[in-house]
Amino acid sequence: MPLPMPRMITVTAIAAMTMRTTITMITVIIMTTVITMTTRIIMAMITITMMSIATTSITTATPMLMTTNSAPPPEGGAVAAGDVTDAATLRDWLSAMLTDGAGFCDAVLLAQIHRAVSSHDDAALRDIAELAAAFVPSRERQLETTTQGRAFIDISRAAWACEGLDEVIAACGGPIVYPVAVGLVSAAHGIPLQPALHAFLHAVVSNWISAGARLIPLGQTDSQRALAQLEADVVATAKRAIAASLDDLGSATFRADLASLRHETQYTRLFRS
User: Fold this and answer.
1) What CATH number corresponds to the domain at position 233?
2) DSSP one-letter code for 60
3) What contacts 162, CB < 8 A, 6 or more positions away?
4) pLDDT by residue (tens digit) across 68-111?
């Protein structure tokens, strides 16, 4: 996936905390998880999430992101090919990924897992975790998201353990992908779905931008502007995901999926996917 993503979160008991404080805490833990996992995998400070970890496979500007009848993505990816060249084109690419691609799908899976844990429905928890693990377009993305999920779980157990956490992890009965890990940990800690989902998507976009800033490259000011401009999409995507069902899962960012498939066979790569 072009700008893959990492995803993240953790918590401490939130009795009497404001929603704003909760979101801040979750985001900080999320960023800590991603940095730890990334160092372990590629020995670098570049991280990216939903979804997903960025890649040289950003393939084209947003209008082409949803087409399949044009030429295939260039071998070098969008940044190398000159399709994503600045803050504006990066912002447009990430907006599509967030609202119509992996960002939305991961948000739906997180919301469904959160509800399954909260209602103590182990059968639904196992089914959703299995679906989420299968809902990945390429081998490298599968490796990326399961590695992120495992790292998130390990850090949560070590630093933010809580009663019932081990039981819901075991109930998944198989690989735990990143959005599932975030959803079950937040639910086990009693974090409400809305702030947990908002924090997750905000952190995912932040990490996408971090990878894009290194690839293009961008300065810190342009990176922060892009993040601020995407915040409305974060809010809207979280709202849609909360209201969605598993039947609403689906991506319209076909070029991104094709780039993810091509990326894993490329000879030279900067990132996992």
Assistant:
1) 1.10.4190.10
2) S
3) 13, 188, 189
4) 445 544 454 666 666 678 999 999 989 999 999 999 999 999 99
Q: Which amino acid is at 82?
A: G
Q: Would the pTM of this model clear 0.70, i.e. be above it? A: yes
Closest residue by Cα to residue 273 from 73, 55, 77: 55
In a domain, 169, yes or no: yes
The Cα 103–Cα 72 span in angstroms is 23
* Domain span including residue 68: 19-263
Q: Is the pLDDT of residue 32 over 50?
A: no
Give the separation between CA 220 and CA 218, rounded to whole angstroms: 7
Name the E strands within the chain: none
Does 147 fall in a domain?
yes
Residue 133 inside a domain? The answer is yes
- Please provide the size of the chain in residues: 273
The amino acid at residue 85 is: T
pLDDT confidence bin for 66, thresholds 50/70/90? very low
The tokens for 70 are 């044009």
For the chain, the domain total comes to 1
A 10 A CB-CB count for 255 gives 27
Q: Is residue 67 part of a domain?
A: yes
Give me the torsion for CA of 202, 206, 208, 213, rounded to 10°: 160
| Whole-number average pLDDT of the chain | 76
Check the CA dihedral 175-270-87-73 and report its sign. negative
What does the block give as tokens for 208? 């996408």
Task: Report which of 8, 28, 50, 13 is spatially closest to residue 188, judged by C-alpha positions.
Answer: 13
* Rg from Cα positions in the chain: 17
